[in-house]
Design a protein that fits this description.
Blueprint: H1 3-59, H2 62-73, E1 78-85, E2 90-95, H3 105-110, E3 117-124, E4 127-136, H4 139-174, H5 176-189, H6 203-238, H7 248-260, E5 268-275, H8 278-285, H9 287-305, E6 311-317, E7 320-325, H10 330-343, E8 357-366, H11 370-386, E9 392-400, H12 416-428, E10 432-441, E11 447-457, E12 463-464, H13 466-476, H14 479-496, E13 505-508, H15 511-514, H16 517-529, H17 531-534, E14 537-542, H18 543-548, H19 550-561, E15 566-572, H20 582-585, E16 589-592, H21 594-597, H22 604-619, E17 623-626, H23 632-641, E18 645-646, E19 655-656
Parallel strand pairs: 8-9, 11-13, 13-14, 14-15, 15-16, 16-17, 17-18
Antiparallel strand pairs: 1-2, 1-4, 3-4, 5-7, 5-8, 6-7, 10-11, 10-18, 10-19, 11-12
Length: 659
Amino acid sequence: MTLSKQLIIITSILLTILFIGTLMLSINNMREYLAQQLESHAQDTASSLGLSLTPHIKTNDLPIMNSMIDAIFDRGYYLEINLVTIDGKKIIERKNNEKVEGVPAWFVKAIPLQTPQGKTTISNGWKQAAHVYVRSHPGYAYVKLWSNTVETFGWFVLSFSVAITGFIMALKFILQPLKRIENMALSITRREFPTLKTIPKTKELKSVVAAMNKMSAKVKNMLLEQTNTIKRAQEEAYTDKVTGLANRRSFDMQLDHVNTSAEETSNSLLLFVRIKDLQKLNNEKGFQQGDAIIRHVADVINTNIKSYHQAFVARIAGGEFGVIINSISLEDSTELAETIAYQIPLINILRSEIDVCHLGGVCYQGKVDKKELLAKADLALQVSLLKTPNCSIIYGIEKDTSRLNIHINPDVNQGAQQWSKMLKQGMEDNKFVFFQQPVISLHTDKIDHYEIHSKLLDEKDELISAMDFIPMAEKMGIMSTLDKHIVETFIEYLKNENTIESIDYSLNISASSFHDADFIAWLYEKLKAEKEIAKQLILETSEYVVHSETEIFKQIVNDFQSLGCRFSLDHFGTAYKPFGYLHDLKINFIKVHGALVRGVAYNKDNRFFIQSLCQIAHGLDIQVIAEFVENEEDLIVLNQLGVDAAQGFYLGKVIKLQS
């Protein structure tokens, strides 16, 4: 109950008690006054009647005495009038009905009104002849008492209403700062940190506002300090100081992760870019010019790979860069390398040089031995150095699908027309199959939710991984259509599922779809019509989406959370960008990238990063999930670091979702 309501109730009770006390005192005083009036009225009538009857008592003229008593009694102001002899014998007796007209019986019963008896003695000479007894009727007194009570009550109700209305208005004005303080506190819980500009004049409220402003600023600074600490640690451990790209250490971690994640490495590219004779350029142009060249080359590489959502670039040695891209075909890999090799010599500082760069790489699928992968990529680079200036060479390696118990289509690099036909036919014939992997809560050891994976059945009813068909759908511009089909199909599955217990699922939405306003509008209306299902869904996307369109993504999160949906950022932590944006984003989950999770038990820098991330995320009511957990050692350490949940082959494999 709000403070204003409590104050209104307390004030109302106090006013009511005050009124009841005042009313009872008023009734009691009025009753005493009326009793005195009744007594005086009865006594005056008895005395007057006694004097009038005295002559007639001597003559015993009964008719005259009856007439005189009736004349007074019939006026109706009396309950009884009696003429009694000295020895108690009644001569004349008159009684009226005790019933009080116009006054509720409960009122008469609740407030008894004494009617004193007036008495006078009639003398015959020196002898007492008779007594006259008169008792006034209380009815008129009750009418007066009742009307006075009703008027008093009416005035109270009117006064009470006016007073309470005025009190509420005054209270609303006085407590405005408290409402603002309440909104401020709620904003802090929503990861916003406002300050109150208007300071109330009331001393106590002024102190509270000052304390709240101080607390808001302190919490904000604390979170920013934690974020900056992690950022500095990341930069020192994983970032190249000249270019701001990842360094060799980070590159090795990423390569280890990609190479051991067969599901994620279908159609991947490992590419080396080398600036030829960088030492010579440094000697001729100076180290500052050399660093400028390195930065320009980094810009060229970044510009050309930004359309690939799962791309990673690092400076691994003086003039050498490493690029890892998931979900890219051999054809596109070759085209990308040729484009970079063409654009680097166009850098102004390098235009006077003929042979300035060489590129070598390998395009592969599935799990490939790391040494073989590096050897073949290095071989391609060495061959390019022996060929024409600014040459690029991309080799291919056969895939190994032994890690996963699924089949990857051997014709995965088939032509765009065939892919287009296969994907469209797959949507028409509903050939997409859902798989699920559990996300285990480390607090309860129970399943928190399932992550959904989709695969495509080809014409031979063999499974094609999403990492194979998604790049083709992106290339053909039908990713939003594909996402729409998958979402619709999964919603239908949930509608037809007859389970007693509600199970939550995370569903990955591509970056292309999040950037498609029509798709977002469609998805909102779809989930608005299926609010119970919306509460079961966790919409998941990559960290790339947030960095590319932060404000738009923030609005999407707010809109869909109003429907009950939750949000998760996938592959978090390897963008090496400040994540202060999390303070305002209000997402529900963060999935730490597998490159940071694998081997965390033996990597103190990754442990520091994950622990710090957990502290910040928990302060923002965000749960941290570790993906690609594949051994007990890492799981124990992750639990100690504060991670909320985990998924990976050690905890549960990817299995087909039963229809």
